[in-house]
Amino acid sequence: xxxxxxxxxxxxxxxxxxxxxxxxxxxxxxxxxxxxxxxxxxxxxxxxxxxxxxxxxxxxxxxxxxxxxxxxxxxxxxxxxxxxxxxxxxxxxxxxxxxxxxxxxxxxxxxxxxxxxxxxxxxxxxxxxxxxxxxxxxxxxxxxxxxxxxxxxxxxxxxxxxxxxxxxxxxxxxxxxxxxxxxxxxxxxxxxxxxxxxxxxxxxxxxxxxxxxxxxxxxxxxxxxxxxxxxxxxxxxxxxxxxxxxxxxxxxxxxxxxxxxxxxxxxxxxxxxxxxxxxxxxxxxxxxxxxxxxxxxxxxxxxxxxxxxxxxxxxxxxxxxxxxxxxxxxxxxxxxxxxxxxxxxxxxxxxxxxxxxxxxxxxxxxxx
Length: 368
Ligand SMILES: [Zn+2]
Description:
The protein is of the alpha/beta class. The chain folds into three domains: about 1-175, P-loop containing nucleotide triphosphate hydrolases (Rossmann fold, 3-Layer(aba) Sandwich); about 185-220; about 220-260 and about 275-368, no CATH class. The protein has helices at about 1-5, 15-25, 45-55, 70-75, 90-95, 100-115, 135-145, 165-170, 180-195, 195-205, 210-220, 220-235, 240-260, 280-305, 320-325, 330-350, 350-360; strands at about 35, 85-90, 125-130, 150-160, 170-175. The chain has a five-stranded parallel β-sheet. β3, α7 and β4 (about 150-160) form a beta-alpha-beta unit. The longest helix is centred in the C-terminal third of the chain and has 27 residues, at about 280-305. The termini are far apart. The relative contact order is 0.10. The site of zinc ion (ZN) has 10 residues, from α4. Zinc ion binds near residues 57, 58, 59, 67 and 72.
């Protein structure tokens, strides 16, 4: 495991984010607020675990941090260090006392978080899903960031940094967590999950370079089976009319819902339980359908263009290759654009069933 020996980081890739993080740590941790951002499933949580270990490691030789052996590293990775406080909009919402607004709850929490460190010299204040906070809550957060002390380091985590106030962003050192190069992700999957090379290859491709998504698929064989069935159903719907397509949506949502697939990086409460409501569960189901649908559409596009070499990680099934050629590129590009918009809409607040109906209407029609 070259990656571990080299750095002590356990997440994969992200060379420039690592470099910035190490630099910040060497400066004595009192630098600017860190903003860890990247798409869902990219592995922000694993990267933050590395940041926390780096911050709390007590190995005397700073160049060997995080050592992953000391108590500081262990407590940091378990997110149980006495000097770590973790907040999020979902947590503040739940911590409200009767009649209290979420802003008031957030202010109260931030005031508590400003307390003195217990064990070490510094407290780390980790705010997850910072981009989910409304403007008032962000203003309360901004106020806390405007009064920096050398005893506190803030780490903000966000899918969409553009949803943060510019005044917050300007106070942050951004650490972008992105897609991992194919070969690096394959090696990581082989190391971490003891997977054979061909399986690791397939997962890295399915996850489109997103490391947390790839690991999730590695841990859930039922997700892969479901994905295969979904692709077969979508291909057969190419030959069926609107009524059949709309009728299929309910079953697709039910089946995806039964997978109980965690949205990558869904809010987690103090006991480590994922926070789910019926509405968020249905959106999660629709999102994994749209993700899998997009990857099928992209494979079809590669086949339609007759340019498999453009997607070197791709291994097209003969059926996909044949259907792609029959469809041609234009209708597939149209559906890909729509699915991408739907994906973003679902992450906001779009209605899952309506979103899938729109996708079904744009899914091309093949003569039998
Ligand atoms: Zn350590």
